[in-house]
Design brief:
The protein is mainly alpha-helical. The longest helix is centred in the N-terminal third of the chain and has 27 residues, at 35-61. It contains 18 helices and six strands. The strands form three sheets. Strands 1-5 form a two-stranded antiparallel sheet. Helix 15 packs antiparallel against helix 16 (410-420). Keywords: Lipoprotein. InterPro entries: SusD-like_2, TPR-like_helical_dom_sf. This is SusD/RagB family nutrient-binding outer membrane lipoprotein.
């Protein structure tokens, strides 16, 4: 971890001189790029920025937290990002850098070891992008200075299904790793420390995830069964695709670096409070703090989307996020994919009859791993009482437990709510979207200015860039 801290300090220092280097570089002279440095940069930059985005904006959409002020986004005016809510440039910057790694791996045999991880990362980030926005620039994007600056918007279906798309890149990424017989190690890998089999497990867990995501549109059972039979997916917390934050700068969770007033803007939501309280779930004390005005260590949540101009909430009456998100961020991960999420996905597949497995056993494993991930002791009777698989609707229980566990990935909770309807989110207090829960992120304003023709075409297909038009996999199957 000390080594990583020194490296990221170097990256942050050198990034401050980026403009100087561009001004003083001969554009006609090729510059050598080491894929190891780019790989490290892409993993860290994407993980750090999207963890922050997931907390500040994704957690509002997923109703884990609510905002006391600066809360137009929480009221579902998603075209007004505040303290977060603009992930578009994060995706495209890192996808462009990752494309350089992929190109180098294919052009130079010395770098062949990077092809598999680069394809897997491309699939991972592209899925995150299209799952939030729907149709997006893809086939003509990520090319940097060598590509068009006005890329067309590809349909989400083709981004998922066609050659060069999400599922294809995951399959080809695995094949590239399995076919690699060179002696050069994978350097710059802060997810698996160069363990190529870790990347294969990561890719297979992502295949499970994204096959389930499109399962409303097509039969994915045979593919899921093949992955299950092979058994080479993330199965233990020690195999998770994560990297650790630190307690101190520069590599701590960004919430620790916000002004205290900005951090105090995010409090426990009423939705999260009710779910955790009904479950008698001790993770509430890990994820949140007792509210200051409580005399007995109680927790209190606020309904999302208050009109802060009309109803000022008192901070001391609501529970702030837990110390793991500010004072003790060394206990927190940047979370790409985990065993707990994989087991909840498999439990869902089993419950729906897509794979021949014991849904309850998979669910129980997911819950046990989720408690361990959040460093909270699992009550001895949790899985036989309030958290029992059969306590109510098993499918709702599976998705709700996955939702709780994914708090550090708030966008994921919202995406899965859109796909499944679980957990049951609330109509917010003062909606700026006619009391509708959004089902996609809007394209950012700069797209209308910089990519006007293609933006206009995409906007027409989404009823004027509406946040209420479902993405392809969320539409009713024909």
């Amino acid at each position: 971890m000390v080594y990583l801290s020194l490296f990221f300090a170097f990256v942050l220092t050198t990034s401050c001189t980026q403009d100087f280097e561009e001004i003083n570089t001969n554009p006609n002279s090729p510059v050598s790029v080491q894929p190891s440095l780019l790989l490290r940069q892409v993993i860290y930059d994407y993980g750090e920025q999207m963890s922050y985005e997931g907390f500040t904006a994704g957690n509002l959409l997923g109703q884990y937290t609510t905002a006391l002020d600066f809360n137009l986004f929480d009221r579902h005016n998603l075209k007004s990002p505040q303290l977060g809510g603009n992930p578009w440039p994060i995706f495209y910057q890192n996808l462009r850098d990752n494309e350089i790694i992929l190109k180098l791996s294919q052009e130079n045999e010395t770098f062949a070891v990077y092809e598999g991880p680069a394809r897997i990362l491309k699939a991972y980030m592209s899925a995150g992008l299209t799952d939030l926005f729907g149709d997006v620039p893809y086939s003509e994007a990520f090319k940097g200075t060598n590509g068009t600056v006005t890329p067309v918007y590809d349909p989400q279906e083709s981004i998922y299904m066609e050659e060069g798309g999400i599922l294809d890149n995951l399959t080809k990424g695995i094949a590239a790793i399995e076919n690699y017989n060179g002696s050069i190690a994978l350097d710059g890998d802060i997810l698996f420390e160069g363990d190529l089999q870790g990347w294969v497990r990561f890719a297979n867990s992502l295949r499970i995830k994204h096959l389930l995501r499109i399962s409303n549109k097509m039969d994915v059972s045979s593919q899921l069964q093949a992955i299950l039979a092979d058994g080479n997916f993330i199965d233990e917390n020690t195999e998770n695709a994560v990297f650790d934050f630190t307690d101190g700068e520069p590599n701590n969770f960004r919430l620790a670096r916000l002004r205290v007033g900005d951090f105090n803007n995010f409090v426990l939501s009423e939705t999260m409070e009710e779910i955790l309280t009904d479950l008698n779930d001790p993770r509430i004390a890990t994820l949140f703090r007792p509210f200051a005005n409580s005399d007995s260590g109680d927790f209190n949540g606020l309904l999302n989307g208050i009109d802060a101009t009309q109803n000022a909430a008192t901070l001391a009456d609501y529970s702030l996020a837990g110390t793991i998100f500010r004072e003790n961020t060394g206990e927190l991960d940047a979370n790409f994919m985990t065993s707990m999420e994989t087991h909840f996905l498999l439990a869902e597949a089993a419950q729906k009859g897509l794979i021949p497995s014991d849904a309850q056993a998979l669910y129980n494993t997911g819950v046990e791993q989720a408690f361990a991930y959040w460093q909270t002791e699992l009550p001895a009777d949790y899985l036989t009482t309030t958290g029992a698989f059969a306590n109510g609707d098993p499918l709702e229980n599976i998705i709700t437990q996955k939702w709780i566990a994914n708090m550090v990935n708030g966008y994921e909770g919202w995406i899965e709510y859109r796909r499944t309807g679980f957990p049951q989110l609330k109509i917010i207090s003062a909606s700026l979207n006619n009391d509708l829960i959004p089902v996609r992120m809007p394209y950012p304003a700069e797209e209308e200015a910089l990519n006007s023709t293609n933006y206009q075409d995409a906007a027409r297909k989404t009823d004027g860039n509406s946040i209420n038009v479902k993405v392809w996999w969320d539409e009713q199957a024909p």
